[in-house]
Amino acid sequence: MTINILMIDDDENLCKDTKELLESENIKTENIIVEYETDFDSGFKNIKKNHYDLIILDVYKGKAGTSNPYKLGKEEVFVKIKQYDFIPIIFYTGIIGDVKDLESEIVKIVRKGDGTDKLIEQITAIINSEFFGIKKKLDNYIRESIRNYLWDFVHDEWDSIKGIKDELSMGYLLMRRLAKSLSKEQIKIILGDSKISSDKIHPMEVYIYPPFKLDEYETGDILKKDNMLYVILTPSCDFVIRNDKRKTDCAILAKCTPLSEFDEFNQCKADKSSKTKKNNLLKIIDSSQTKYYFLPETPFIKNHIVDFQELLTEKYGNLKNYERIARIDDPFVQSMVSSFIRHYNRIGTPDLDYDYIFDHI
After folding, report:
1. Of 47, 177, 232, 294, which cross-links 285 as Cys (Cβ 3.0–4.6 Å)?
2. Model confidence over 324-361: pLDDT tens digits?
3. 207 and 338 belong to one structural domain
4. Do 33 and 79 fall within a single domain?
5. Same domain for 292 and 187?
6. 3-state class of 263 per DSSP?
7. pLDDT in tens, 7-26
8. This prediction's pTM
């Protein structure tokens, strides 16, 4: 795999030395290619024009600590890079105090006085990080998918698709095809994860997180207020404004109880038999049950039970007083709503007298 690095520093000799060092260094057996620019304007033109996996960035133009050096990094370059693309950054600077608060798994800081060994260490840390590998694989997949679509379909079938060759129609086709191509099997191939099961659901697949920052609320939005979670059950179409009015002014919310606080779960824990305990637990979290709906635990939400018997009605305008945590994704949100409808659409009938029937057969 080739790692493309852009270095921006007004010290050209340092740039040349760093380029030579990194391109000769065996970092995780990757092929390192380094470009450099001695001013940010040229560097940013390169960022907009080319694809880079990592940027090494100075904070100052001129010698740090002089009377009034021109500051490059934090307020100007860093913000512009963030606005344009996601590219991990290593601040390589003589004075680290001005950017220390930016340090994270994505942004690293190396003091020039610490030498190139530290720089190589931080480059290696970024390359080894999971987010770097995932982004690289996804970038390659999307680029390859678009290439295949435009060359193998649009170019080769041009005469047969003249009726839909306007940019908007072709854009819809391409985006929908790309979205549908990200099936579980394809994700398994992209991530190279043999542990992904084709017939089982990973908890992360249940949610969209963080939720899209939409002006409107949707079915399956998970909201938080006063440390309590709620899920919107009202169909999204009822929130659509037509003729300056919504179909409904209110939203139905179902209360979510942490599994650890759920009475039936604590009763299960008291069972001495592990088999009985497991069977009783499955009855609670089985989504075919019409009384509850189970939300599995992820790093952003604990195991919760959506209780269809714990409902409240909230004015749509008051939903802004809740924090939107995540959204239950398709098809799980449809499954939850179906369970909710079944629970309140039951028609009870008396049992037949089976003893009488058996006696007369």
Report:
1. 294
2. 999 999 889 999 999 898 888 866 667 777 777 677 77
3. yes
4. yes
5. no
6. helix
7. 998 889 999 999 999 988 76
8. 0.70
